[in-house]
Amino acid sequence: MSDLENPTVPVPDAVPAPDAVPEPIPEPTPASARGRRGLALRVAAAVVAAALAGVGIGVGIIKVTYDDAPQAAAAAAPQGVAAAPAQPHPYGAQANGTHFGSLLDLLLPVPAGYKLGPDDGAAGNDAELTPDQVAAALDDSVKDLPKTERDKAKGVLQGMKVKGEGVRTFRSSTGDMALYLRLSQFNQKSVEAESAFEGALGSETGLFRLGPEVPGHPEAHCFLPPAEPGDPIDELDCTAAVGDLLVELHVAGVAPLPKAEAVSVFRQQLDRLALPGATV
Asked: Among 29-33, 42-46, 48-52, which range has the highest average pLDDT?
């Protein structure tokens, strides 16, 4: 989970030079970026958590949607010329909750007022990871554990039937906030269980500050790591399950963090994956 970084506090009353460029946001280290560690590191934690909690989570029927962009009506073909068949959406979701297409397409495009952000570890700032790459990241994350625990973590990953992960990061135009989006695609029961576990961990343990709600998405959970009064940097984590996709957002920025703005980005991502019949 997140361990808030402690960057050096600027000297009071310091006046920047007229042409000074604001310092970039300190990027959370891999150990502090709870929301950005990805499926591989979560699996290692899940092995321990499952042993401690032993909680079974039921999964309801999940309805899904296709891309909300309307299909363009086919133009009438000239007489005697057969109309070309309508092209299917390059990405979307099937009725059983399985998403198709590139995870890069399913990820929210860079919103207005943002640009591509800092690298999310070795994944970079705009990438799709294959199952082999996810497995390799898991191997690296658990390499210092005893062999028994390493084998357990790998077994959990295999049971999840991981299809891949998509990563995209944004930086605000003012340069004072960085957002890390991640889509992890795997077994739907595992997606639901992981999202519920993270939501309970953030809201019921008392270890974290309760975060804002995501309008139109009661399935989403947001919370903030502990912070000392006067800390110059704050963080926010949000998670939600959408069919076979675990959707995560980690935000780091100058305090006070514009939480409503960050949550708006998360809402846009969830709206892009909205389910048929869902209220958004």
From this structure: 42-46
Contacts of 71 (CB under 8 A, 6+ apart): 86, 89
Considering its fold, how many domains does the chain have in total?
1
Residue 260 to residues 164, 208, 225: CA-CA distances in angstroms? 29, 18, 17
> The domain containing residue 109 runs over which residues?
103-130+163-272
Is 186 in contact with 244 (CB distance < 8 Å)?
Answer: yes
Cis peptide before 218 (omega within 30 of 0): no
The pTM of this model reads: 0.71
The strand pairing partners of 166, in sequence order, are 128, 183
Q: What is the CATH number of the domain that holds 255?
A: 3.40.1000
Residue pLDDT, tens place only, 191-249: 888 888 777 776 666 677 888 999 999 989 999 988 788 889 999 999 999 999 999 99
Assign residue 248 a region: left if phi > 0, alpha if psi is -120 to 50, beta otherwise?
beta
